[in-house]
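Researcher: Please translate sequence to structure tokens.
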Amino acid sequence: MKLLIALLGFVAGMASCQAATYSCSSGINCGNDVECLSTCSNIVVMGTVSQVISPNGTVLGPGSTYSASVVVQCSFKGGVSLAGQVLTISGFSNPPATPTNSCNGSISADGKQYLFFIYISSLSTSTVKTYAISTVCYGGIPVTADSIQHVSNVIGASVGTSGALFGSASCTLPAPQAPPPPPPTVSGGSGGSFIAGSDAVSPRLGKFAVAVAGMGSLVALLAAN
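Model: Translation complete:
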């Protein structure tokens, strides 16, 4: 019985660790998790870099930090629409000559669209506001169907998928997708259980769901005996 209780606690603990909740109070440590960034950042925009601004005109090399001018096409979060504006955003950086991790906060005027998760870094009374990226590990997140879907999962669920804030009609988000429910458990003939269709578990659950299912089977078997 003690083993059964311990296993039940272990399974419950593993499940709670997988909940998509984000703590934003002590700074943003989202990495490149778009749903975390969309939740924790004050402002979310989509745009292209028109110019990279080096400090005092210095040559940008490994480890350099710099700002960029970003032309905003879509404004998804922030209270006031920034669509159509050109923002000066700081906090970008090139990886050091000898990288120690996978962080890459660089950006370039390559004409591609990026998602920028930012906040106002200047005083609100300033004539010209300046902004900074929320996560220095990733300068901008490339715009893809997947990254836009993750933005919608957070923002579309709360404020809708279109509106005057966003900008043009091309800024309409796809419908939000709710996290998939746990796969159903089907009782086996010997008191065990298994996940129905476990070979097609959602990618958002991945191998974790299979692992929890396996633990569930063992718990059910012990309970039956």
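Researcher: Any highlights?
Model: The chain has four helices and eight strands.
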